[in-house]
Each structure stands twice: as structure tokens, then as C-alpha cells.
Amino acid sequence: MRGMEKKLKLITYGCQMNVADSERMAGLLRQIGYALTDDLDAADLILINTCCVRATAEDKVFGQIGRFKTLKRLKPELILGVAGCMAQKEGANLIKRAPHVDFVLGTGQSSEVARVVQSLEHERKHFVDTSNVSGEIGAEVFPLRGGCVTTFVPIMYGCNNFCTYCIVPYVRGRERSRKPEEIFAEVEQAVAEGFKEITLLGQNVNSYAGGMTFAELLSAVDKISGVERLRFMTSHPKDLSDELIAAIAGGKNICEHIHLPVQYGSDKILRRMNRVYTVEKYLRLVEKIRAAIPNVSLTTDLIVGFPGETDADFSETLDFLRAVKFDAAFTFIYSKRSGTPAANFENQIDDELKHRRLDALMKVQNEISLEKNRALVDSVVEVLVEGASKTDEKIFMGRTRSNKLVLFAHGAERAGDLVDVKISQAQTWLLKGIRN
Ligand code: SF4
Fold first, then answer.
1. Does residue 163's CB lie within 6 angstroms of at least one atom of ligand 1?
2. Pairing of strands 156-157, 176-177
């Protein structure tokens, strides 16, 4: 009898939405007796939750699956499953390429994971289901959350925007919003479990349509007792409303940080990306946000090497970066995704040039990030303590409300405490300080 001794090794790739999905699948598998383990050799079930937004993410998954072939040979009763975006995209191909995989579940089928695993425990045969890309994991699931201080609560699934480079609408389906009551209940449950910081998640939270606007939802969650910090991501610039800006400005615990992916800094490329805003419109939005929320931190995503990108487009993007002065930018090289319109665009950029442009872009942004962080030296910031730093137990790490990483010498603090730290040193990606 295996009973409560069954062990699940969960491997998650990709974005926060995947982390949240993994926690929900772990919640479902807990109901049929699986407990999480970090020990691969002890696992009865290995579940890989995958990402396919870039080719490198897919390569990593195939590499990982390949490495489990020997493990499966040594332990044939082990169940190996693949879920998430790449499972949705590849379907039965995954089993053709790697017959030691037992099951493949698309993004809309994650709620079926426990049923599928139970049936494989009784009868071993390949199982593939990617039939309903618009499915979701319902309210009845209790996520098995990782960490102890900060957590994610999905408010919607899917995307309707069809940016020409992006595979997400094809592998996650159209937008579906969760009901506010479901979201409130899940936030209350997370708070009861001890979480202090909640991030509301969606591919484009600004188009939330669960019976209230996103601004109303955010303000309502802000009122839930025990939510000490509230964040959200991601915001499409085309949908960020005045109402939302006012909600953040007037919020109690809504953090003054907006991640606002611009993706590029020239109108020509933005048009080809189908981003539906211009550089000027984005700049006006930034002005409006900064006027209403003076201490706001703005971060963004940028893609270099999009098909048709010229030196002039790239140089406009560098000027754009210098004009906006983001606190941080996550920069990516364009990755051709088959099935998206941009994969068939002419004038694909060669790899060497893409890398050169990425380096130049990062150099400009790193200087800006450092300058922004240096401006904080000698100031006192509120830090939510997340725990010991990965490299030194005597150093604690946490984040400011503006989402900047802070390291400071460990005193009597505990994970989850809100403490004041005086900043003494600034680097590009982090701040160092001492307890005030
Ligand atoms: S908004 Fe665009 S980039 Fe973001 S998930 Fe949707 S299609 Fe992809």
C-alpha cells in the first residue's frame, strides 16, 4: 500500500503564471496522497510544467526529459508527466520524441491531473489531452503554495492580444476572468496561511472582466485584512486606465510599482508587433503615472532583434530608454515561434547582430538602473523580509515596495517582518543597507 507515502517532484519552467499553475496541480495531487519532494530518486511521480515562449525554454525541457530516461529504466513504476504551454503546443509529439513520458496535459487540462495520475497508477498507457485550451483550474482547488511570505493569485487566464511574436494566445487560449468571490476567498486563504504579499496575476490584468473592473478588484483586495502588500502583473499599456492609476495612488497597501512591458521603442516595430500603441502614447502614460504616483517604480520588458529591425529603429529604442529611465528592464532576444505571424516576416535578424544589440541595450539600461539605485543611498526604505540570502546565512534579503532587492545584516528579523533599512550601497540589480 502506498497511501500517504507517494512523492511528487514538481519541476516548473517559465513565468509566474506557471508557478501558480504548478501550485494548483500540487494541490490537486495532494488530494490523492502525493507530498512534494526535492529528491528525484524518491519520486513516484515527476511532473514537468513547461514554457514555450522562447526556443531556449523548450530546449531546456527536452534536455530535462531526456535525462529522466535512465531513471525510468531503473524505476519503471515511476510516472513521468509533462504539462503547461509546451505540452499544449507539442501534444502527442512529445511522446513520439520521448516515449518514456507517460502523460501530456495541455494548459486547459491541468485540473485533470489527479484523475489522469490515478488512472495511470492502475493501468499504464500513454495519455495525451490538449483538447481544451480554454479550460481552467476552478475555485475548488486549494493550491499547495511554495515559499512563506509572498505568493501569486491568478485572476484570469489566456490572452486576446495576439502580439505577432507571442505564442501565449495559442497555448493558453482566450481571456477568461475568475469571479471576484473566488479571488477574495483565495487571497483570504493565503493570508490565513501566513503570506504577507499577494501578487494578482494575469497575462493582461487590465482587461479583467469578472463583473468589476481591475481597478475595483485591486481596491477590494487591498481592503482584505492581513494583505500587507499587494502587487499585480502584467499590464498591457493599451489598457492601463486612469481609474487604475487612481486606485494605486489612493491604495493602502498597493505597492508603487508597475511592470509595463513596452517591448520596443520605435513606432514601426511596435506596429509590426501589433502592440496597438505608439511611443508617444506610452510616454504620455508614463508622465500621467509619475504625476499621480510620485514614488512609482517602473519596469519593463524589451525585445531586440525583431524581424525588420534597422539600426535606426534600434537607436530610437536606446533614446526611448534614456528618456523614460525605467528602474529596471528585462531584455530578451527575439525568438522565432512557429505558428506566430512574426515567424514568417521577412528580414529576420541574424544571431550575431541580435546579441550585439542586446549587449548595447543592456549597457544603457544598466547605467540607468544604477543611477536610479544610487539615488536611494542614505534613504530609509521599508523592506519585507523574505529570508536568508542564498549565499550567506548572516545576510537577509527582502524587497522594497518598489520591488527592489535589498540585502542587509541579519539581526532578530524573521521572514515576513516589515523592517526599515537605511541604504548604504547601490548596485545595478540590488541595494545593500543596515537596519535603521
Ligand atoms: S499581451 Fe501580447 S505579449 Fe502579452 S501574452 Fe498577450 S499576446 Fe503575448
1. yes
2. antiparallel
